[in-house]
Amino acid sequence: MSSYVAPLKDMRFVLNELASLAEVARLPGFGEATPDTVDAILEEAGKLASGVLDPLNQSGDQEGSQWAEGAVRTPKGFKEAYRQFVEGGWNALPLDPEWGGQGLPKLVATPVNEIVTSANLSFSLCPLLTQGAIEALLIAASEPLKKKFLPKMVEGTWTGTMNLTEPQAGSDLALVRTKALREGDHYRISGQKIFITYGEHDLTENIVHLVLARTPDAPEGVKGISLFVVPKFLVNPDGTLGERNKAHCASIEHKLGIHASPTAVMVFDGAIGYLVGEENKGLAYMFIMMNAARFGVGLEGVAIAERAFQRALAYAKERVQGRDLVEGRTVPIIRHPDVRRMLMLMKAQTEAARALAYVVAGAMDAAQRHPDAAQRQRYQAFVDLMIPVVKGWSTETGIEVASLGIQVHGGMGFIEETGAAQHLRDARITTIYEGTTGIQANDLVGRKIAREAGATVKGWLAELRRFDAELAKSSNADIQALRGQLSSGAAAVGEAVDFILAKAGSEPRVAFAGAVPFLKLMGVVAGGWQMARAALAAEQRLAAGASDKPFYQAKIATARFFGEHVLTQAPGLRAAVVGGGEAVMALGEDQFLAA
Fold it and tell me: What gap in Å lies between CA 214 and CA 223, rounded to an integer?
C-alpha cells in the first residue's frame, strides 16, 4: 500500500509562478514569508503528514471514534498526533500574533492545510473548524471574550466548533429554534444541534462551541439569529477551567466516511453562553466562519484528489496485467492507454484545482493587507466570486478523481484493504459540507453575478482576454492548442453570464436551473486559465535553461491534456445553462414516477 508524500515540487511551482508568493510576502506584516522559510515549513509539514498522520488514516477509518455515556474517544494515536500538531505550532500558523499566532499568509497556510488533509482528512477537520471559530471571534467578539478564549484556541489546546444545523433546520437557518434567555452578563442556551464536527472528543481539555440561537423577542427569520460562545467547561477569571457547562453530546453519527471524525448531536440544556457581537446579527458573524470553511472544504477536494492520485499511480506502476498493444507482452497497467487517460485526468484536474485554490488564497491575503483600498476591494471581489467555485468545483472534482482511483485499481479498488475506497467515501461529504454544490451554485449565480450585474465576472473575463494576448506570443504548439480551447471556454462563460443576467429577474427558475452546470463551467475555465498560466511559466523556465526539464515539460503536456479532455466540456456546459433550464422544470411533480 502506498504512503502519502507531499507534492512539494508542484506546490512550490504554484506558490511562486502562479500565486505570486513574492508579492504576498511584500504585503505589510508578511515579511517573514521568505522562500527559505516557506520551504522549511513545507518540508516539516510533509514529514508530519508522512510520518504521523498518514499512518493513522486507514486505522482511524477502521476503528472510528466511539461514543459512550456522553464522552467520545477518538481512534488510537489521534491524541498523540494532535499533541504533536499543537506542539509544532501548526494550528497557529496563519493566525494573529496578538493572540499567539505566527501571522503567516493564508497563501503559506494553504499548502500546509492541503498536506495535513491529504494525509488524514478526518484529523484535519478539527483544526479547520477551530480556525473558522477563531476568525468569527476575531472579527465580532468583545475584547473580554477574545482574551478569555482566543489564546488557547490559537495555540490549539482548546478547539472550536460551529453549531448551525438542527433537525428541522439544515441549510435553511431561518428555521433555527434553539433559544437564548438573558441572565445577567450571560445567556442560557437551550436546544439541539446536529452534524457538529468534533462537537465532542478527547483531544483537548476544552471545546468552544459557537452556537446560533434566538432571543425571546427576536424577529422572525434569519434576521433574528444571534451567535453565542458556549464552552464545554466554563472558564474562571484566572483562565483556569471551572465547572462543566450544560452542553452535552447525545450521540455521534454513523457515516459513509470520515469515520475517525466524530459528528455529534449536541444538546444544550440551559448552558451558559456569551453573546458574540450584537443580538440578531449572528448570521452575518457565522458567515465569516462559513466563508473561511468553504475555502477550506474546497481545499479538501484538492487534498483528497492528490491522495487518491498518488495511490492509483503507485498501483498502476506495480500491477502487471494485460498485454501491451504494440509489444505484445504483459506489462504494468500504466502502459495501457485507458489507464494512462484516467491517471492524466486525475493529475491534470488535481493540479488545476490546486492552482486555483492557491491563487485565491493569495488574493485573500491581498484583500486584507494591500496598502491601497481600491486594490483591496478588487481582490475581495475576485475572492467572493471564486469561493463558491473553489468550494463547489474542487469538491466535485475530488469525488471524480477518487472514483477514478478506484477504477484504476479495478476490482481491488472495491476492496477496503487497498485504501482506494476510503478516499471516495471520505470525499463524498465535501460536496455537502458548508452548503451543497447547489447552494454554492445559487450563491454564485444569485449573489455574485445577478446582484452586481456581472461586474466582477466580466472583469475576470476581461483579464482572460488580456491573458490571451500573452499566450499568443508563445511559439509552443501545445500552448497554442490550449489557447484556442481556453478562448472557447471563456466565450462560453460570457454567453452563460449574459443569459443569467437576462433571465434571473424575469424567469428565475430557468436561470437557476442551470446554476450547477454554470459553476462547473466556471471551474473548468478557471482551472484552464491556471493550467495555461502554468504552461507559459514552464515554457519560460525551459527557455531560460532550467535544469529540471522533465518537470517543466510535464507541466506543458499536462496543460495540453487538460485543454483537450476537460476544457472541451465548456461548450456543452454552456448549452446546459442557456438551453436546458426549461427541461429541468418540464415534468410535474406527479410525473417523476411512472404509473
Answer: 10
Grid coordinates of 388: 463558491
- pLDDT by residue, tens only, the chain of 595 residues: 689 999 999 999 999 999 999 999 999 999 999 999 999 999 999 999 999 999 999 999 999 999 999 999 999 999 999 999 999 999 999 999 999 999 999 999 999 999 999 999 999 999 999 999 999 999 899 999 999 999 999 999 999 999 999 998 778 777 899 999 999 999 999 999 999 999 999 999 999 999 999 999 999 988 999 999 999 999 999 999 999 999 999 999 999 999 999 999 999 999 999 999 999 999 888 877 787 889 999 999 999 999 999 999 999 999 999 999 999 999 999 999 999 999 999 999 999 999 999 999 999 999 999 999 999 999 999 999 999 999 999 999 999 999 999 999 999 999 999 999 999 999 999 999 999 999 999 999 999 999 999 999 999 999 999 999 999 999 999 999 999 999 999 999 999 999 999 999 999 999 999 999 999 999 999 999 999 999 999 999 999 999 999 999 999 999 999 999 999 999 999 999 999 999 999 999 999 987 6
Cell numbers at residue 34, please?
521568505
Single out the residue of 523, 516, 514, 526 nearest to residue 576, CA to CA: 514
Cβ proximity of 555 and 538 under 8 Å: yes
Calpha distance 319→412 (Å, rounded): 11
Supply 552's cell numbers: 517543466
Task: Answer whether 408's CB lies under 8 Å from 423's CB.
Answer: no
Q: Which helix (H) or strand (E) is 584 found in, with range?
A: helix 581-584
Enumerate the active-site residues.
Answer: 434
Asked if 155 contacts 93 with a C-beta cutoff of 8 angstroms, the reply is no
Parallel/antiparallel/unpaired status of strands 66-68 and 179-183: unpaired
Beta strands in 131-185 (DSSP E): 158-163, 179-183
88: which DSSP letter?
Answer: T
Handedness of CA 343, 344, 346, 350 (dihedral sign): positive
Q: Would you say 92 and 100 are in contact if contact means Cβ atoms under 8 Å apart?
A: yes
Predicted TM-score (pTM) of the model is 0.97
3-state helix, strand, coil in the chain (%, to 5): 65, 15, 25
Q: Cell match 500574533: residue?
A: 97
